[in-house]
Fold this protein.
Amino acid sequence: QVQLVESGGGLVQPGGSLRLSCASSGDTLDDYAIGWFRQTPGKEREGVSCISSHNGNTYYADSVKGRFTISRDHAKNTVYLQMNRLKPEDTAVYYCATDLVSELTQAGSSCVFLPFQSGKDYWGKGTLVTVST
C-alpha cells in the first residue's frame, strides 16, 4: 500500500482556480500511474484524471476536459491537478491514488479508470474543494 497525502483544496468562487497536490513520503510515484478521484455525499467515487507511469500519457473525464491538467514533478515526487474555470459541480472531496487501487489500472501505456468498488481499498482523507459564491 502506498500512502499518499492530498492537499490544496479550499473554497473558491466559480471560474476560479486551485492546484491540488498528491505526495508520498516514501514510495517513488514515478513507478505508478496516479489518478485523481472525487466523491460527493451519496454518490459513487469517480475518476477525474490520471497519468501513466511510463510515458506520462494522460486521461481526463469529459466533465473536466479542457479545464483540468494533471502533471508530475519528478524532483518533488508529487503529482498535481491544476483546476481552472471551476464550476459548482466540481465541489467534492478529491483523492489521489496509485494504480494499486481497484479503480485504476494501466493498459499498455495508458492509465484507465475502472468501476467504483466500495470498501475494497484504503483511501486517505482527501482534500475538500468547494466551488461557491
